[in-house]
Amino acid sequence: MELIEKYFRDKVENVNFLEFKDALNIEAKNMTIKKDLPLPIILDDFIEGIKEGEVDEEIDLTYIIDGIIYIIGVDKEFPYIDEYKDILLNYDEDIVEYLLYESTKDIEKENYDNSAIKLRTLLTLDHNNIKGLFNYAVSIEGIAKKYMLMENEEKGQKFLKYSTKKLENILDIDKDFAPAYYKLGYHYKYMKQYLKANLVWQKFLPLSEDELLVQEVREEINIIEDDANLEAGLTYLNYNDYKKALDYLLKLIPDHEKSWSVNYFIGQAYSGLGQWDFAIEFLSNALEYNEEIDIYNELGIAYFNIGNIKRAVDIFNKGIKYDEDDYKLYFNRGLAYLQLEQYNEALKDIDKAYELNPGDDNIRSQKDILESLLYNN
């Protein structure tokens, strides 16, 4: 938020202020502007109308109105904001619609700075204006893309997250505003939040009357379907809801039968349910496609739990040969040796696990038990 405010506040240098000796009476608009109120003008727009050392007393009011719109948009903490708001509202009762129209033209021209400034003013006048909020989010997204094209990923991400937040705010105000769902889907997809993307796009479909956009979103939903299923499966897996995890993960098998990670996660879920035969099947598949250390551990534990201790030791041996610094492999093999009553081998492994990870209380406890068993007899 601070970055965004600074981005716009730094643009205040493009503003100059006029002071008039007398109050300005604008009869056509039934408005009087106090003589001691500094009036902003945009230098770039007005420079040709200024002569050095003098200002035309018949200055066109539109320059001042544009300046007011600009200063409110770049610095919402400016001291005369309330007075400026009154001027805008008295000048044109449809000023909000005017700002929305002008900002839309700026967006079409990809002039996102100008559109954002106008929209910040609009939202100062009408902070819950849905179309204004949406166009503002689009403008901020445009600025985010500019930074990313400049290879300034950090600033680009901050602007994009701010844009996402504004789109989410719209749905807090109006749950049926279809364009916000449409845009949010792409934001979430970009951030690899596939479940969220799928959810908002599913909500978009019945709300939109644009058949081209509906078809586009349906295609996007199909594209991210596997990613969304994987994300859902992993979420349930992390919460130890193994049955629901399988509901999503098993959907991935037809197109990802040889994916080590898909097989591994399914094996984990079956392990959590205590369905060891299925766990061994999928974990063995995973190991066939990739020699990840965690697979050796999970597979060895699965054999351990069906009572095939020697096979478990064999799996742990292969894992240790692949990576000699994984404490879990030594600890698990030590427990297997303990089951086989090979106590000296068990203690060697537990000692090694403790050496690699001395902060693990479970390893320390098992080490104490084994030492007591061996040295007190």
Q: What's the CATH C level of the largest domain?
A: Mainly Alpha
Radius of gyration: 33 Å
Can you say what the CATH homologous superfamily of the largest domain is? Tetratricopeptide repeat domain
CATH architecture of the largest domain: Alpha Horseshoe
- Low-confidence segments, given as residue ranges, are 51-55
What does this protein look like?
With 377 residues, the protein is mainly alpha-helical. The protein folds into 2 domains: 196 residues, Tetratricopeptide repeat domain (Serine Threonine Protein Phosphatase 5, Tetratricopeptide repeat, Alpha Horseshoe), CATH 1.25.40; 134 residues, Tetratricopeptide repeat domain (Serine Threonine Protein Phosphatase 5, Tetratricopeptide repeat, Alpha Horseshoe), CATH 1.25.40. The chain is built from 19 helices and 4 strands. The longest helix has 28 residues.
